[in-house]
Amino acid sequence: MSLALFDFDGTITTRDSLIQFIKFAVGKPKFYMGLFSLCGMLAKYKLGIIPNDQAKESLISYFFKGWDYALFQKVCDAYSLNEIDRITRTEALDKITWHKSKGHRVVVVSASMENWLAQWCASHDLELIGTQLEVIAGKLTGKFATKNCYGAEKLNRVRAALQLDDYRPIYAYGDSAGDKDMLAIADKKFFCCFSD
User: Among 16, 19, 46, 100, which one is least packed by beta carbons within 10 Å?
Assistant: First the structure.
């Protein structure tokens, strides 16, 4: 059997789902006020002083720490089912459809939270590997329960979930440095494109 691994943000979508989700969940005024409060941290991230995972966890913590998990998931599901299709690339969905028509196993491997990708992936009959959030006593702690599914961790999570020797060829699709480890294991790799 063949395997197709798809990054999500920037590959399947035209925009970062994290940013779009925060706007959806808290509203634009609170979102922009939050960015202003976090501008020092974001500047350090842009300058390479702090890593991707630390910046992302800071965003999640600022906006969602202490949220009731059931409410958060309800908002995630609404975003997933009603908003994500607005930012998906037609050519990405066409390629996913092609893989599925050939009987290939298709897995979305994303640094974004599984919470707001799960329903979208389920509606397209896709498997999902993503970053997971920590929940204690029914509340979000603002921390990750897993490592950020980015860079080398993408490959680690894929290897933990799949017996890669069982699949040939392996296809991989990505658009950023965070996808390069995943692309490296593919027989057919596509960077910022969907065809040779």
Answer: 46
63-97 as b/e: b if 16+ CB within 10 A: bbeebebeebbebbbebbeebbeeebeeebeebbe
Length of the chain: 196
Q: CA 172 from chain center: how many Å?
A: 15
Determine the longest span between alpha carbons in the chain, in angstroms: 49
- State the DSSP code for 9: T
Cβ contact 61:142 at 8 Å:
yes
Q: Which residues contact 192 (CB under 8 A, 6 or more apart)?
A: 174, 175
Query: Residue holding tokens 């860079």?
Result: 151
pTM of the model: 0.95
Q: What is the pLDDT at residue 96?
A: 98
Q: Kindly report the number of other CB atoms within 10 A of residue 159's CB atom.
A: 11
Mean pLDDT of 166-190: 97
Residue bearing tokens 């974001």: 42
Residue by residue, DSSP assigns 86-133 as GGB-HHHHHHHHHHHHTT-EEEEEEEEEHHHHHHHHHHTT-EEEEE-E
Distances (CA, A) of 190 to 4, 38, 134, 138: 11, 34, 33, 40
